[in-house]
Amino acid sequence: MRVFVTGATGWIGSAVVDELLAEGHEVTGLARSDASVAALRVKGARVRRGGLDDLGSIHGGAEEADAVIHLANKHDWSDPVATAAAERAAVQTIGDTLAGSGRPFLLASGVAGLASGRPATEHDTSPFHGPDSPRGGSENLALEFVDRGVRTVSLRFAPTVHGAGDHGFIAVIADVARRKGVSGYPGDGTNRWAAVHRSDAARMVALGLDRAPAGSLLHAVAEEGVPTREIAEVLGRELGLPVSSIDPDDIGDHFGWIGRFFGADFPATSEITRRMLDWAPAGPTLIEDLEAGAYSAR
Questions:
Q1: pLDDT, tens digit only, all 298 positions of the chain
Q2: Where is the signal peptide (predicted)?
Q3: Of the four, 111, 180, 278, 284, which is 20 to 30 A from 141 by CA?
Q4: Looking at residue 146, what DSSP letter applies?
Q5: Could you tell me the residue ranges of all domains in the chain?
Q6: What is the pTM of this model?
Q7: What is the CATH topology of the domain spanning 2-159+197-221?
Q8: Which residue, among 11, 126, 123, 6, has the nearest Cα to 59 in the 3D structure?
Q9: Could you give the dihedral angle defined by the CA atoms of residues 228, 122, 158 and 276, in that order, rounded to the nearest 10 degrees?
Q10: Alpha carbon 8 to chain centroid, angstroms
């Protein structure tokens, strides 16, 4: 297939592009910078210049493709309104372009916030609706296009998609520990984060492209929930820092913006996804990556 990928040189996207190329797909990646262009071309992928705000370029890429995988996101925590608006506009553009074609439209979402007091499952519908919600309510918006002849599939990633070279949430938490001189965990540290290795997440996306029916909610989750205290303890050992509980009232001051995520309970399962796709995560666990120094060599 000819597959158009946004976020093609990002942490998850670059691994997805590798998977797709290995399977013989023709990949075109949306690239904003010269460095991104070069990274795609050296892999043998095609390039469409533009960013998340370049809706004309996104429309053109979707129009020419047999399938679209939308992984780009601004992740600008200083301006969440603008981030959500850009995400919603991109999803609307892709959906409108693919309407009536039956072509696949896979988009990135997350398991965070889907359930309270229990692990989130693929039966849980997203509570985020409308342009002012997280990601601009993009999952629910994209799923509306199923009735308009689009094979929409939501890719719900665990809070941490980990591995060597990751600059995501766990890397930020490690940087906080370095700055503060202590590897902290929120409260009693029993709140959990679902996790998946980058290689397993990329493989799930490729399988979803081939096998997932319209309206599928796929969970890129290998571990249901790793306690934050365990994460902090391993980070402390690897960084040579003391480990300490952070009072819930001080989480924001200690961790900064990442505190509202690290202080939350985000477990999730992926049993339905595994059965549907015959997907079996095989990469290292989060603790194994931490112990291997994936987040301590900075």
A1: 999 999 999 999 999 999 999 999 999 999 999 999 999 999 999 999 999 999 999 999 999 999 999 999 887 767 888 889 999 999 999 999 999 999 999 999 999 999 999 999 999 999 999 888 888 799 999 999 999 999 999 999 999 999 999 999 999 999 999 999 999 999 999 999 999 999 999 999 999 999 999 999 999 999 999 999 999 999 999 999 999 999 999 999 999 999 999 999 999 999 999 999 999 999 999 999 999 999 997 6
A2: none
A3: 278
A4: G
A5: 2-159+197-221, 160-195+224-268+283-291
A6: 0.96
A7: Rossmann fold (3.40.50)
A8: 6
A9: 130
A10: 12
- What is the side-by-side strand order in the sheet with 2-6? 46-49, 26-31, 2-6, 67-70, 104-110, 151-157, 216-220
The residues with which 161 forms a beta bridge, in sequence order, are 196
Same fold, 2-159+197-221 and 160-195+224-268+283-291: no
- How many Cβ atoms sit within 10 Å of the Cβ of residue 82? 12
Distance CA 220, CA 203 (A): 9
- Fold (CATH) for 160-195+224-268+283-291: UDP-galactose 4-epimerase; domain 1 (3.90.25)
Q: Which two tokens stand for residue 289?
A: 């990556």
H or E element in which residue 231 lies? helix 228-239
From the number of C-beta atoms within 10 Å of its C-beta (0-12, 13-18, 19+), residue 200 rates as buried
Provide CB contacts within 8 A for 64, sequence distance 6+. 2, 4, 28
Query: Alpha-carbon distance 140 to 229, whole Å?
Result: 33
What whole-number distance in Å separates Cα of residue 46 and Cα of residue 180?
A: 44
Helix (H) or strand (E) holding 237: helix 228-239
